[in-house]
Specification:
The protein has a 6-stranded mixed sheet with strand order 3-2-1-4-5-6, sandwiched between helices. It has helices spanning 14-28, 33-40, 44-51, 61-69, 74-85, 92-98, 119-129, 135-148, 166-170, 176-186, 240-256, 260-277; strands spanning 103-108, 159-165, 195-200, 213-218, 224-230, 233-237. The protein is built from 12 helices and 6 strands. The chain has 282 residues and is α/β, with parallel strands linked by helices.
Length: 282
């Protein structure tokens, strides 16, 4: 059964106003969700999620909607207000830059990068990290993270490079079934035109970046932004010397991690372990 969309309150929320205006203009133009999805180059489910208020309209969608409807800067302006409405989070600035980055290089010490996570894996992470969260809050966070993945499916995706410690594969986040589905979803991204995934095996000795999460974002102007996170702390780093050291450290990690082909075989081997953990069909 399809869940009933939540009631939009455009007079109280810029995000709800964004959704209601999207629906008003789409219907006024006699345009189907399929047609609009083709125009803005997003999936139908994503556009529908934004229209009913379930997904955050992250850039570049607002600009694409303004172009599609000839609405000036209506949606771009509403996005500015939506950002102010949201409770500020330490990761927000990174998300803004990620939305326009031409290259994303990420290291994960303990979890799959958000851009490559399955929905079930996301939910398991949010539930484990924040047991006090309601299901509604988990739904919201999951929808926001899924929204970020639309860029990888676009006609002009960023170059994504992910290096994962073997611990990421071995930690049974959400249980064997969730991990099996996650690793199966990860495999197609290991070696493509725009994506590379490498595994840093336990057999390798210490390396430059070993803790938490590191994200290097190459921006359209050629500059590099750095986000680091560990435990309950996370911040954008602006010091150019630190950024230069992280770039150098990441390059060294590429040299020492398994090649894309060997990484795929390694993931397959771990995947087989999870398949063996599954209960036999009844």
């Amino acid at each position: 059964m399809t869940p009933t969309p939540r009631e939009l309150k455009p007079v109280e929320s810029a995000r709800d106003l964004f959704s209601s205006e999207l629906r008003r203009l789409r219907l006024g133009a006699g345009m189907s969700l399929d047609a609009l999805a083709d125009i803005v180059n997003y999936s139908k489910s994503h556009v529908h999620g934004v229209e009913v208020g379930d997904r955050v309209p992250l850039p570049p969608l607002p600009e694409k909607l303004d172009a599609a409807f000839g609405s000036g800067k209506l949606f771009a302006g509403l996005w500015v207000v939506i950002k102010r409405e949201r409770v500020p989070k330490r990761f927000d600035r990174c998300l803004e830059l990620e939305a326009t980055a031409t290259r994303i290089q990420e290291y994960g010490a303990s979890v799959i990068p958000g851009l490559l996570q399955t929905e079930a894996y996301m939910r398991a992470l949010f539930t484990a990290a924040h047991p006090e969260f309601s299901m509604k809050e988990v739904d919201r966070l999951t929808a926001e993270r899924l929204s970020r993945q639309e860029r990888l499916k676009s006609d002009n995706p960023p170059d994504l490079w992910a290096i994962l410690d073997e611990a990421v594969l071995r930690r049974t986040t959400g249980g064997p079934v969730v991990m099996r589905e996650q690793l199966e979803a990860l495999l197609p991204y290991v070696d493509t035109t725009h994506t590379t995934v490498q595994i840093m095996p336990f057999s390798h000795y210490g390396y430059p970046i070993m803790n938490g999460t590191v994200i290097l974002l190459t921006l359209p102007d050629g500059s590099t932004a750095l986000y680091e996170e560990g435990g309950e702390t996370g911040e954008m780093i602006e010091d150019r010397l630190i950024i230069a050291r992280r770039i150098r450290g990441y390059d060294r990690m590429k040299a020492h991690a398994l090649s894309a082909g060997a990484s795929a075989r390694y993931i397959e081997a771990v995947l087989e372990d999870y398949r063996q953990c599954e209960p036999p069909p009844s």
